[in-house]
Amino acid sequence: MNVVKLILTDYTLQIVALGAAILGIISGVLGSFAVIRKESLLGDAVSHSALPGIALAFLITQSKKTEVLLLGALISGLLSTFLILSIVKYSRVKFDSALALILSVFFGGGIVLLTHIQKIPNANQAGLDKFIFGQASTLLKRDVWIMGILGIILISLVIIFWKEFKMVSFDSEFAESLGFSVKKVNLLLSIMIVTAIIVGLQTVGVILMSAMLIAPAVAARQWTDKLSLMVILSSVFGAVSGIIGTVLSSVVSKLPTGPMIVIVISIIVIFSLIFAPNRGLLWKVFRNYKNKKEIKSYFNKRNNGKKDIISLEDYTRKEGV
């Protein structure tokens, strides 16, 4: 009852929970395509690469307005994505190696810039380091409005280009044979994923944002083989984890909101990996037990009344079971 009363009366909690829910929905929708396209680590690289953009935006403008810092992060994230794709295209460096290279260089540069900013005799720079781990408690109504508007734009684009995104994600060669501009679709989808990552930096930070992007989609993938249902489930999982994580961090003192949200979605992922039908580990154990029982029954019927009785092991080896 106290928790319910807190949710209904605490304005700050309502704002933060709403912002976290919006982030969860955006991350769930765009993260589904990143998982399907096997580009999960791209979110990790982009989120870390956003740090120097935040620092440079502050150095240039001397402003800590959210929109200014996130614009710098967006430019830096897009630049890192372009460099990763260019390295893979024009060199023999593999995708994972290019990710690791760009991630290290950009994140290291961001740390250097933040260290330099902290030494500047200007009290206005305080709090920039919160973007590393996030500080959801600093979300304002204006920030939530920005997240909501960006969320509406991103989800609208997903709906409009649903067919193109779906075809390119599953079979880009087939999509190209049908006349679709695969490069343009990939570019648009990459920009949208980068934007989704940037939206969540203030809430969960550059280090944890990759988990927020991928975890809801991974959990949803365990429950369905249909992309549309996967996107819906992923957004629901993201929103639920954002709300529950925010509430838990408010009820229990000294619990950071961003890491708590990631812990909640991680629990959802673990539950899905164990209990999801068809794909869950528990279902797999049950299915193996059932198959073994059926094979044993078939083996006993086949050898009934025969003189040459072979062992179950020999039978399964002979039949290739």
Structure at a glance:
This protein has 321 residues and is mainly alpha-helical. It is 80% helix and 0% strand.
Describe this protein's structure.
It is found in: Cell membrane. This is Metal ABC transporter permease. Belongs to the ABC-3 integral membrane protein family. With 321 residues, the protein is an all-alpha fold. The protein has 2 domains: 14-209, ABC transporter involved in vitamin B12 uptake, BtuC; 283-319. Helices cover 80% and strands 0% of the residues. It has 15 helices and no strands. It has helices at 2-9, 11-36, 40-61, 66-90, 95-118, 130-133, 141-160, 162-170, 172-177, 182-199, 201-221, 227-251, 257-275, 281-303, 312-319. Helix 3 (40-61) packs across helix 10. It starts with a helix and ends with a helix. The relative contact order is 0.15. The model has no long low-confidence stretch (mean pLDDT 83).
Break the fold down into its secondary structure elements and pairings.
Blueprint: H1 2-9, H2 11-36, H3 40-61, H4 66-90, H5 95-118, H6 130-133, H7 141-160, H8 162-170, H9 172-177, H10 182-199, H11 201-221, H12 227-251, H13 257-275, H14 281-303, H15 312-319
The CATH first-level class of the largest domain comes to: Mainly Alpha
What name is given to the CATH topology of the largest domain? Answer: ABC transporter involved in vitamin B12 uptake, BtuC
Question: What is the oligomer described by this structure?
Answer: single chain
Terminal Cα span: 56 Å
**What is the helix tally?**
15
Regions with little confidence, pLDDT below 50 for 5+ residues: none
According to CATH, the homologous superfamily of the largest domain is: ABC transporter involved in vitamin B12 uptake, BtuC
Transmembrane segments: 12-35, 41-61, 68-91, 97-115, 144-162, 187-215, 227-248, 260-282
Subcellular location: Cell membrane
Protein name: Metal ABC transporter permease
InterPro entries: ABC_TroCD
